[in-house]
User: Fold this.
Amino acid sequence: MKNKKIIISGGGTGGHIFPAIAIANALKEQDNSIEILFVGAKGKMEMDRVPKAGYEIKGLWISGFHRKLTLKNLMFPFKLISSWFKAFSIVRGFKPDAAVGVGGYASGPTLDVAARLGVPTLIQEQNSYAGVTNRLLANKVSKVCVAYDGMDRFFAKDKIIFTGNPIRQAITKIAGKRAEAYQHFGLDPDKKTIVVVGGSLGARTINNAMEAAFDLIANNQGVQVIWQAGKLYIEEFEAKETGQLPNVKLTKFINRMDLAYAVADLVISRAGAATISEICLVEKPSILVPSPNVSEDHQTKNAMALVNKDAAIMVKDKDAVNNMYQTALDLLKDEARLKVISKNVGELGMKNSATRIAKEVLSLIK
Assistant:
């Protein structure tokens, strides 16, 4: 009996790539003989991250259509046609038994070709507002795995399977790690801890809000902060007074996010799908500051999916500099509110999402 072959396509951001790799790993756990080929976009981070995870990847010459008038848009039709034919060559040559799309530019032509060639197809939508690529593929695929309620706005009800978002499982294993976390970060066990993250690159608004809160931070020494400023901003904020405060641990990147979650009494973050899935699984209260610089303002919709269930607090990007840190301090003082939010967010978490999706992919193969 020949080995099963599966194509996984998509990327562009960590929010697409990490779920894709998690699904691949779960497929290999189900059946180690499965052959997996990734298809990504040339020049995007998946071309580096996927090989590091141990998988082969082929690249398409594809990028998005810019909303503003730009000369780059003149190349879009040529890139799309080129990518479609390259995807056709890849799919026909690899002969997959199933194809998986996780969103991002490359998954469009790849999943379209696969569906046209009769390959069973599945897409995974991470956000509460479906991305353009997945919306375009909706009528062509066999199954759609989602992480939020109400996704029948975008996809046929009979195709939708509620699986949650695949995430890096090691991050959410925090039980019994609190003492280790205090030691790792050099924190005081008698103080409340806020973990501030803005992604690996950093979030300008969140960083500016921390800088604006200098006096609040300095005058509330009973609260300590782990602040991931991101590699784009770390040097700038290391040089500022905020980064020199004794109750602030300023870092470019938090390598042990499991320990950060273990010690966190409150998390301040953007509202990307992966981060929200992590927060749900670790059952942490959070203040979400959605990025306005994303397609269809989907981070606000992600955040509101929690806010509407009293499972998080949202501060708008435009209000963050003035209100973010004070909102955090006010919430930390309200133990009853923290417990309610923690309980509600924990009820939204779905464990073993990657395994659920892997089983759905395998069920497509006859």
In short: Residues 170-346 form a domain with the Rossmann fold fold (CATH 3.40.50.2000). The chain is about 40% helix and 15% strand.
